[in-house]
Specification:
- One of its GO terms (molecular function) is manganese ion binding.
- Residues 20-282 form the Pyruvate carboxyltransferase domain.
- The protein is α/β, with parallel strands linked by helices.
- Helices cover 40% and strands 20% of the residues.
- The protein folds into three domains: 24-254, Alpha-Beta Barrel (TIM Barrel), CATH 3.20.20; 339-399; 405-518, Alpha-isopropylmalate synthase LeuA, regulatory domain (Double Stranded RNA Binding Domain, 2-Layer Sandwich), CATH 3.30.160.
- The strands form four sheets. The protein has an eight-stranded parallel barrel, surrounded by seven helices.
- Helix 2 (40-53) packs parallel to helix 3 (67-79) and helix 6 (130-145) runs parallel beside helix 7 (163-176).
- The longest helix has 21 residues, at 498-518.
- The protein is globular.
- The structure holds 3-methyl-2-oxobutanoic acid (KIV) and zinc ion (ZN).
């Protein structure tokens, strides 16, 4: 292999037949994963970035799931400039109608309607015979086509479906008007060779297959989602469904950044191309991590903190002589910027706004004001303010914009002579409340104050601290995961004081839980027309 600089021109001109449509489902399958709840504002921000980076189709949500999902899809439909805006629906007509209503304002709109076709799903989940499912496929696609010419049909659990039945359903869906056929590996069970053969076979056997674009949708239960997706493309699929950072149900979905860069860096063996501006991948990863509070694994391909770090002496030596010795793509090609010492307490508003722009943020009005005040406060306490500090600060500002409970002040007495004691003041929907509590350690005392002020039954499932940058004055970034009944949420808080960061993270999670409580759980996915 000869490593090629990703920015270098590819050996041959791009042809239309090799173009792969990127269908991003961060806001639907991604948001569906336990703990990854986003607020309305956060969803709009993610959608805007996806649109800017060249995503072709944004699956903005599942409109029947709740009022919140409906309004988010609807607002994204109004705002999106380039991408097709898509909503998900089951086979039930009320789902499809609601979805159509949500995406109505979009300049380019798609209804994605799905139905299970595998024996195990048909028998136990749908409790339907195959001939009934077959009729439902025709009915759901026909219904969706009343609203838009762009209809995607998915055979849920497609990789465990009998091939003859799958081919019949695909043919019927295309005949009824489906323009995209998605065959998902819903349970992350397939392998690259098998998935390749599946697409090849279906495309060869279905007589009208040339009238639809075929799509891959893979889950990562066996760590094969990216490899399977690329194998499906080799089998003739020309749409990849994926999410930023690979978030999604269980082990997640195909990671957008990984499939895109695989095709770009190894284009001689993966000869397909996408419209994605790869220099925005890092920014997108950071934004999604911030709004979902899902940390990105340090060694994650493309966007992990260590993805371009060279620790060993031998590697560092090689890198100094020639970067291609150990680097198959440049950090810049995926939007990694060199960490810089940015500003201190003398930096003014102009420099701050410039820095935000450099980091890819667009804040205005109160949000910008608040972020600047927080930056000044941080610069007063911390000698060196790095890019990562600014990112943590702004991400928190965005994530907490809609919070109903806010931390006003906190003081803690800790040390060798217990008991540890915390005094906390909160603003709860405009009302101020104060509490003082003891605890088995300072963090316990802080969390006891929150429980006393905002009584709740949530279980603390995860409490994690890491330093945003190096040095003893570094900001602490705390992640907290709470669960209540079947709902799980995660939130982050950052502050040079670890206890303040802990309180912010816990309150952030409670705020998200309040949003989640308002959501109605969609009935089990069994609805029929
Ligand atoms: O994994 C899956 O099967 C899905 C469908 C709804 C497309 O997410
Ligand atoms: Zn899925």
């Amino acid at each position: 292999m000869t490593a090629q600089h990703p920015a270098a021109p590819t050996a041959h001109a791009h042809s239309d037949k090799d173009r792969v449509v990127i269908f991003d489902t961060t806001l639907r399958d991604g948001e569906q994963s336990p703990g990854a709840t986003m607020t309305h504002e956060e969803k709009l921000e993610v959608a805007e970035l996806l649109d800017q980076m060249g995503v072709d189709v944004i699956e903005a949500g599942f409109p029947i799931a709740s009022e919140g999902d409906f309004f988010a899809v609807n607002e994204i439909a109004k705002r999106t400039k380039n991408a097709v805006v898509c909503g998900l629906s089951r086979a039930a007509f009320k789902d499809i109608d609601r979805c159509a209503e949500a995406i109505k304002p979009a300049a380019r709109k798609r209804i994605h309607t799905f139905l299970s076709t595998s024996p195990v799903h048909m028998k136990h989940k749908l409790q339907k015979e195959p001939h009934e499912v077959y009729e439902m496929v025709i009915a759901q696609v026909t219904r969706a086509r009343n609203y838009t010419d762009d209809v995607e049909w998915s055979s849920e659990d497609g990789t465990r479906t009998e091939i003859d039945f799958l081919c019949r359903c695909v043919e019927a869906a295309i005949k009824a008007g489906a323009t995209t056929i998605n065959i998902p590996d819903t349970v992350g069970y397939t392998t690259p060779e098998e998935y390749y053969n599946l697409f090849k076979t279906v495309r060869e056997r279905v007589p009208n297959s040339d009238r639809a674009v075929f799509s891959v949708h893979c889950h990562d239960d066996l760590g094969l989602a990216v490899a399977n997706s690329l194998a499906g493309v080799r089998g003739g699929a020309r749409q990849i469904e994926c999410t930023i950072n690979g978030i999604g149900e269980r082990a997640g979905n195909t990671a957008l950044e990984e499939v895109v860069m695989a095709m770009k860096v190894r284009n001689e063996v993966l000869p397909w191309w996408t419209n994605i501006d790869a220099t925005m991948l890092t920014r997108a990863s950071k934004l999604v991590s911030a709004v979902t509070s899902f940390p990105v694994q340090y060694n994650k391909a493309i966007v992990g903190r260590n993805a371009f770090a060279h620790e060993s002496g031998i590697h560092q030596d090689g890198m100094l002589k020639n970067a291609q010795t150990y680097e198959i793509m440049t950090p810049e090609s995926v939007g990694v910027k060199q960490t810089s010492l940015v500003m201190g307490k003398h930096s003014g508003r102009h420099a701050f706004i410039r820095k935000l722009e450099d980091l890819g943020y667009k804040l205005a009005g109160n949000q910008l004001e608040d972020a600047f005040v927080r930056f000044k406060a941080l610069a007063d306490r911390k000698k060196h303010v790095y890019d990562e500090d600014i990112e943590a600060l702004v991400d928190e500002e965005i994530a907490t914009a809609q919070d109903r409970i806010r931390l006003v002040s906190l003081s803690v007495i800790a040390g060798t002579h217990g008991p540890q004691r915390a005094t906390m003041k909160l603003n709860i929907e405009g009302r101020t409340a104060i509490e003082e509590c003891e605890g088995n350690g300072p963090v316990d005392a802080v969390f006891n104050c929150i429980k006393a002020l905002v009584p709740n039954e949530a279980n603390l499932e995860l409490y994690q601290v890491h330093a945003v940058t190096e040095g003893t004055d570094a900001q602490a970034e705390v992640s907290v995961r709470l669960s209540e009944n079947d709902k799980t949420v995660t939130a982050k808080g950052a502050d040079p004081d670890t206890l303040v960061a802990s309180a912010k993270a816990y309150l952030g999670a409670l705020n998200k839980l309040m949003i989640k409580r308002q959501r109605t759980k969609p009935e089990a996915m069994t609805a029929t027309p």
